[in-house]
Amino acid sequence: MTVLAEPAAETVRTASRLGRGYWAGVVRRLARDPVALVAAAIILTIVLAAIFAPWVAPADPYKSSMIRRLKPVGDAVYLLGSDELGRDMLSRLIYGGRLSLVMGVLPVFFAFVVGSMLGIMAGYAGGWLNTLVMRTVDVFYAFPSVLLAIALSGTLGAGILNAIVALTIVFVPQVTRVAESVTTQIRNRDYVEAARVSGARAPTIVRVHVLGNVLGPIFVYSTSLISVSMILASGLSFLGLGSKPPEPEWGLMLNTLRTAIYTQPMVAALPGVMIFITSISFNLLSDGLRSAMEVKA
Amino acid sequence: MTVLAHDLAHDPAFPDPTLRDRGGPAQPLLSVTGLVKHFGGKRRWRGETKGAVRAVDGVDFAIAKGETLGIVGESGCGKSTTARLVMQIIPPDAGEIVFDGEEVGSRALDLTAYRREVQMVFQDSYASLNPRLTVEDTIAFGPRVHGTPRREATGRAHDLLARVGLEPGRFAGRYPHELSGGQRQRINIARALALQPRLVILDEAVSALDKSVEAQVLNLLLDLKAEFGLTYMFISHDLNVVRFMADRVMVMYLGKVAEVGPSDVILNNPSHPYTAALLASMPSMDPDNRTEEAPLYGDPPNPIDPPPGCRFHTRCRFTSAICANREPPLAAVAGPHAVACLMTQPGSGHPQAAASREVAA
Fold first, then answer.
1. What's the pLDDT score for residue B359?
2. CATH number at residue B233
3. Do A199 and B188 touch (CB under 8 A)?
4. Distance between CA B168 and CA B186 in Å, rounded?
């Protein structure tokens, strides 16, 4: 009986702590979604491993060994094998997460900030301002995002900072478009009209009545871009436009290990596996977030 | 509720409504002349726009202080557009709105000041509440916008909640999805009253409610009107509700006023055939008196291309040749009762009309 009683008490406590607000409901529904929870756990593990890499990694990711090159997965010394310069793959994958996550999250974050501002402004104001912003956005849309990222990165020059700038520019139009469409919907709701009727000015209405109803959907869409950003960033590194060797970064590692694809296919595929796992986790988490937020709009 | 009156009287930002009276009792609170709104349509290089929906096409009316003007008509007749125009949610194409002797938008009465005087309750009680705001934040928003400190605004929200029949302790912190339709509409009424308006526009405010809840909300509206000295512009398609609420009734058809007058005259002894048809279409409680024949056929004509002459002549049972050629003006028949129908206008040429003014007199 005590075993049974305990979870019930826990539920009561959680419910009262969370209160009854909208976001509390979102958290509650998210906590009941096993897929989203697993995805969140994976992301948390990768993020924590990346942050605490010096303590987690078993070896120095830069220390090469000419005699221990391309060891297979499950090697006595190298748990996940070694790369073409005899560096420990596990350590490099852990350290590589740092740059790869930054390249995945930062451009999306900047795009979220800039795109939300542009989109909400265009959506709320309507008229010529909307036309101006949205047609400019359409110009960027005309280029495939991979091509645009490569072209911008190439123009700005190789380097992590430039790659982040390039990716931000790639994502801003996409976020702007989503932000504009949700804002246009909200703008015509009766409660926004009621707020206008009460004599409030546009900035106040946007802050109180629009932002709260609009940021959620934009945020969910943006999280789904993180995986795209990671893959694009890896692609840029692969082409030599992102990070430079010997810096561990998943895309770059994939690039340098491609020569070993026939001798050690498992090891060569590992960075790709990491990109895949991380990006699919972000996608699943944003899916869960979307359905958790859909109940009350 | 003396508490509330006391509170508000001591708030310098919200002087007592009776002190805000400018024009005196004879001055109508609201008077609207030549109100026009056309939607869409291609704007030609010069001249008139083509293909526009003539939602409101020249409407004149006035609302006296303290009265309730009921506005009735079919869907699409321009009731709601008129409300939105009066509320200045959408700008009119033409027309003048005068509030208590001051033209709206003039130096004496700018839009911000006007919006404190006139408030609106919408039909959809759910869509008109922000789902992310608590009840008290929703009600306090208006006063906050007009510079009332947060604590006072929240205090007023609580007072108003109590006044519309919702216990503040239980409801202040709730979100709209936790409330029933009737409770939500009470919140909307409280929100409208938070700015201490003198005119409240009720746009189908009770139409979406259950009959029992509707009756409660209607009684609440009457109580509030008496207590705060409000004037109502009450829009509804339900003639029974209008009969209960309104002092005067205005019947609209296709963007124009068909008939206006005291509600007992309009609802018992209408002069316009359209009003008569509307009344005849009301279901009767008496089984021996059931409606055997549809009083009106078809839908209203397309407002993009309204019929020439009298707009109702395509569906009117008394129609004659003159109706398609001559547009009837809204003319007084007896005192405050005005009708836009050639039959009631002597010398108009309609076979049913008196031959000349002399004969009529």
1. 44
2. 3.40.50.300
3. no
4. 12
Which residues fall within 8 angstroms of residue A132, CB to CB, at 6 or more apart? Answer: A122
The DSSP line for A147-202 is HHHHHHHHHH-SSHHHHHHHHHHHHHHHHHHHHHHHHHHHHTSHHHHHHHHTT--H
Distance from CA of B131 to the nearest CA of A (A): 7
The residues, any chain, with a CB within 8 Å of residue A48's CB and separated by 6 or more, are: none
- Which ipTM was obtained for this model? 0.79
Q: Do A22 and B119 touch (CB under 8 A)?
A: no
Tell me, yes or no, whether B288 lies in a domain: no
Are B241 and B110 within one domain?
Answer: yes
Is the Cα torsion angle A65, A66, A71, A75 positive or negative in sign? negative
Taking the CA of residue B109 and the nearest CA in chain A, the distance in Å comes to 13
In Å, how far from its chain's centre is CA B318? Answer: 29
Which chain A residues touch B122 with a CB distance below 8 Å?
190, 193-194
Question: Are A278 and A104 spatial neighbours (Cβ–Cβ below 8 Å)?
Answer: yes
Collapsed DSSP state (helix, strand, coil) of residue A57: coil
Tell me the per-residue pLDDT of B93-128, one tens digit each, with 9 for 90 and over.
888 999 988 888 888 888 888 888 999 999 888 889
pTM beyond 0.80, yes or no: no
Contact (CB<8Å) A195/B141: yes
pLDDT in tens, A155-207: 888 888 899 999 999 999 999 999 999 999 998 888 998 998 888 888 999 98
- Whole-Å CA distances, A292 to A225, A277, B36, B59, B125: 18, 22, 46, 49, 25
pLDDT digits (tens, 9 = 90+) for B345-357: 887 778 877 665 5
Angle at A94 between CA A35 and CA A255, to 5 degrees: 100
Residues B211 and B260 in one domain: no
